[in-house]
Amino acid sequence: MAAVNFGRDEGLDIAIRCGGHNGPGLGSCNDGLVIDLSMMKGVRVDPASRTVRVDAGCTSGDVDHATHPFGLAVPFGIVSTTGVAGLTLGGGTGYLTRKYGLTIDNLLEADVVLADGKFVTASKSQHPDLFWALRGGGGNFGVVTSFLFQAHPVSTVYAGPIFWEAKHAKAVMRAYRDFLPTAPEELGAFVGLKTVPPMDPFPKDYWGKRACAVISAYNGPAADGERAIAPLLKAVPPPAFNWMGAMPFPAIQGLFDPFFPKGLQWYWKGDFVKSLPDEAIDTHIAQAAEAPTALSLMHLYPIDGAVRRAPKDATAWNTRDATWSMVIAGIDSDPKGAEALKKWGRAYWKAVHGFNLEGGYVNFMMEDEADGRVQASYGENYGRLASVKAKYDPANLFRVNQNIRPAA
Ligand SMILES: Cc1cc2nc3c(=O)[nH]c(=O)nc-3n(C[C@H](O)[C@H](O)[C@H](O)COP(=O)(O)OP(=O)(O)OC[C@H]3O[C@@H](n4cnc5c(N)ncnc54)[C@H](O)[C@@H]3O)c2cc1C
Question: Which of 63, 60, 45, 70 minimizes the C-alpha distance to 92?
Answer without folding.
Answer: 60
